[in-house]
Amino acid sequence: MKNLATRVVFVLRKYFLWILIFSIVMLLASCLWSYRESPRSASVVLTFTYPNASEGLFPNGSYFNAYDIFTDDIVETGIRNAGLEEMVQTGKLADEISILPRSNASLLTTQFVVTYNARRGEQLGAVSAEGLLHSIVYAYIDHFHNTYSNDQLVLNLNVVDEEKMEYIDYVKYYNSALNQLKKYLRSQQDNNKDFVSSDGTTFQELINILERYRLTSLKEIEAIITERGVTHDRNAYIARLNYELWDKSNTYTLNRNMQELYNNILQDYKSELTSVVFVPALDSNREFYMSKTRVGIDTYSLNVTNYEEAAEEIKRQIDQTSQNINTIKAPANTSAAAFNAKRVDSYLAILKEQIDATMSKIRVIEKEYSKYKNHNYVTMTPVVPDFTERIGLKSAILFTVIMDVVLVTILAFLKREKKASEEVDKY
Amino acid sequence: MKDFQILRYIKKWKYLIIVIMLLGLVALYFYLSRQQTYNVTMDIQYLNDGASKGLTPTGEKLDPEEIRSAIIVNSALENIGLDCNVDYIRNSLTVQSILTEDEEERKKAVLEKGEEYNITPTNYRVLLTLDSSYSGETAQNIMTAIVNQYMIWYGNQYVISMTKPGALDEALLDKFDYIVALDQISEEIDNILNYIYTCGESFRSSQTGFSFYDLQTQLELLRDTRLEDIYVKTLKSGITQDPDLLCDYYNSDIADNNLLREKLLREAEEMKKLLDVYEQRMMEAQSSSSTSDKSDDTENAEDEGSSPIILNKVYEIYDSNENPVYSQNSYEKLMDTYAEYYSKIYAIDKAITRDKYILSYFSGVSAASDANSQEDIHEEILGLVNRVNSIYEQVNIVGTEYNQSEIANNIRVKSSAISTKGVNIELYMLLGAILFLGLGCVGAIVLGRAGDLMDYVLYTDKITGLPSRLSCDEKIEQIAKAGALTTFSCVCLSVTNLGDINARYGREVGNQMLADLGQILEVTAKQYGFIGYNNSNQFLCLLDHCPYEKAKDMLDFIGNELALANFHFKPSVSAKIGESDRLACYQINNLISYTFKQEEIIVYKAKNNDKSRGTM
């Protein structure tokens, strides 16, 4: 053998079959090892689809922080859901999960790649790394939906949550609940005026229904209660109305005193000390006008008006309360009172049924609208490695080539040594 | 000496060149890895009204450098559970302002007009540069954590102005009598409502769907129905734990309020006197100033109105809130203070009336209420407390979201944290490969040429120009190390007339004759194998793969060349051939020994040396 190249060619020709077998064994071994290890790592892509996401905000307008995705609570829930609470520690697992923006764009990204690489020796039982990661990500998505979309409590509003209330209080509660629902629907409608649910309902229709309940059914009930003095406990209610009367009279006096105070101030005000200044300003049409600076006398005049208005409003309420007291105090026919109470009860029951039926429709449109508007808020796409990636084909080929080179070099070297010793032995 | 052939040197030292390149690349890789830096940037924008004037929402000076403060960096590192040098991270953080395209254009336009551009930028770029002891991913995490922490801190420091009220204490009834506890509950409800009024009713929570309006109406309704109901029941039935203590409580409260009322009345009267004096003096001042101005500059005074002293100051002096300060403010401030005294007095009057109203129900009660009544009212109040607290929980959630939303309305992150490498290792490795390859080649050339020089000095016979005896020895040793010979010929050439020439014409002529022979052998014998001068008039040829006949051919070739040569003195050359197969000798040393024992062959016999001398 004159040189290494000749020896290598010689070795390759002589041991071709053995080298081929060795290569196949190495390739298979490497592929098997990669395949066995592949379940220990997994990736998913989280895509935030709601409108505010691209502005770096959560759906409620608060600032978005992707790195808050995996808090201990969420990771713990994910581990529990995967049934690994006995085997995996929350703190350690959180360290093995990385979150990186999917792209290097300079804008705010809405896609993040979440990767979990299980530590060597970490026992995951029958669950793969992919299974555990998915469990954690689903826990996060659940948390996200619970926080920002699911089961709006305002829609679970218990219209009347008080027992043994006076009839008139029921009216107030229904009125308040209907107003709250109406405002909620109005806020949804402001975002999308054309939205129609699968059963053909629009937000405006529902608002109209609720308003109808408020202005007709509820008004009717209220009229019966106030005009006919329907009560659960007549004396207790009169006592309450008397207290209200006293309290309002007190407030009325206060308002009148304040009105008087500012009236006196206005009387004593020295206008010579309060020259006004005209300042150039722009109106809503972006046109110039000379705005007058506000001075004390303006404020005091407004105060007089405000206190007077408040006093008059309280006076109206006092008169109303007095009238209610008189109505309730009037000698009543027992059977008529019982009849009226029964009538109000039935009307209230019907109203409750109607509101419950409307609530069902509201929940349907709300659910569909939320889905439409937010595209499920956040979606998860598993990054599924294909077969060649799973068996690490590229690495396996590289490994095999390196091992072949090492083998051939060793064989060529051994061949030279062997030849030399044979020649020596010959003589 | 051998010719200067670059490719020969490179070919000879090719493995060394590769090794140098690989070692160089490995060293370069480790060096670059140590020099690697990771740069992470995030852009933030201040959105509050005063930001373009360099002010925070609370009116303080805006300082984006606060993001580098120890409290923020330390908290951020704690949040991500990283234990590293806080000061190093702080030093690695820089904040620089960035101008948007609009701002750039505006600045350009203003500067072109020769005016001063004094609008503070509202966009800033935060840059974190970490060394190779951190990974790019860690740098990203640190950056994000710092910016998040800064936003929380900034929000708490400059954005969130309202503190959320607390929930109701369930142990209220252990501390107070029923009616007092109800007053406390009413007060707490009012506190929560005041908080809601300040935040504005329109904000709606994404988490619960409740708006402040919803919670406000729920609380107001609860106050006006259930609380009032329990309150009236307690009053009407005179339910109390200890009537004497309760009466003492309200009597004491009335006494305190009366004292406070008297104090406020005195202060109000004093304020009234002060106002009268102020009005009088200001009127006098205006009157004299107006007269003086009219005498000095009548036209000017008429233009500015009847009170030039006051109006001239309107746009000249500003207070900390940038409101103009002028004398009317002082006058109205005094007026406001006067009004405030009386508004407090009327509120106290109302409270005293309320205390007396409550006392009217309990003054006639001589003993604590029966256990059943107390138990009933206790339960009802507890139910009320729980209901208020459940609404408060919602207020808390909406309030938290409202605060976060307010923060986002005042400061916003404009880009995600993206990590870039400071050193492009791949590019430097490519350049390094080229550099080390070049260095290897230069080294090979230098080494090769030095080797040539050394060979010439050590292994070349200076007379014949052929390899010296030392070189012959090394060649023999090399062949011996290679193992057994195959078809190998060893030829020993001798100059038979050298002694005669030396004796007759001198050593110089003899040396010249050897040099001439050397030239012939260099051209002829070298084609067959190695030839060197073995001293003592002997030349040694070591010819691998050379049978006896071929060696004989070589001798004939040499003889012919000598015959054709036109030397002054021609050497007489004889030779001995030892061929391995013929002699059945396959070890070089033995073969050489056997060669010397072989029959001598005349290669060339010089005839005309005398004649040649005659021509000299």
Which descriptors would you attach to this protein?
heterodimer; A: 427 residues; Helix Hairpins; 3 domains; four-stranded antiparallel β-sheet; 8% strand; B: alpha+beta; Alpha-Beta Plaits; five-stranded antiparallel β-sheet; 21 helices; 10% strand; disordered C terminus
Topology readout:
The complex is a heterodimer of chains A (427) and B (616).
Chain A: H1 4-14, H2 16-37, E1 41-48, H3 72-81, H4 90-95, E2 97-101, E3 111-117, H5 129-148, H6 167-191, H7 203-228, H8 234-268, E4 278-282, E5 288-292, H9 296-329, H10 334-374, E6 378-383, H11 387-390, H12 393-426
Helix pairs in contact in A: 1-12, 2-12, 3-5, 6-7, 6-10, 7-10, 8-9
Chain B: H1 6-12, H2 14-35, E1 38-46, H3 70-79, H4 86-92, E2 93-98, H5 101-112, E3 123-130, H6 136-159, H7 172-175, H8 178-199, H9 212-237, H10 243-304, H11 308-311, H12 327-362, H13 371-410, E4 411-413, E5 418-421, H14 425-459, H15 469-482, E6 488-495, H16 498-505, H17 507-524, E7 530-533, E8 538-544, H18 548-564, E9 573-579, H19 580-583, H20 588-596, E10 601-604, H21 609-615
Antiparallel strand pairs in B: 1-3, 1-4, 1-5, 2-3, 6-8, 6-9, 7-8, 9-10
Helix pairs in contact in B: 1-14, 2-14, 3-4, 3-6, 6-13, 8-9, 8-13, 9-13, 10-12, 16-17, 17-18
* SS-based class of chain A: alpha+beta
Task: Tally the helices of chain B.
Answer: 21
* Architecture (CATH level 2) name of the domain at 460-615 in chain B: 2-Layer Sandwich
Helix fraction of chain A? 55-70%
Low-confidence parts of chain B, pLDDT < 50 over ≥5 residues? 296-317, 610-616
CATH topology value of the domain at 460-615 in chain B: Alpha-Beta Plaits
Order of neighbouring strands in the sheet with most strands of chain A: 2-3-1-6
Mean pLDDT across every amino acid position of chain A? 83
How is the quaternary structure best described?
Answer: heterodimer
Mean pLDDT of chain B: 85
Q: What is the CATH top level name of the domain at 460-615 in chain B?
A: Alpha Beta
Beta-strand residue fraction of chain B? 5-15%
Percent strand of chain A equals: 5-15%
User: Domains counted in the coordinates of chain A: how many?
Assistant: 3
Biggest sheet overview of chain B = 5 strands, antiparallel
Inertia-based shape of chain A = elongated
> Helix coverage percent of residues of chain B?
55-70%
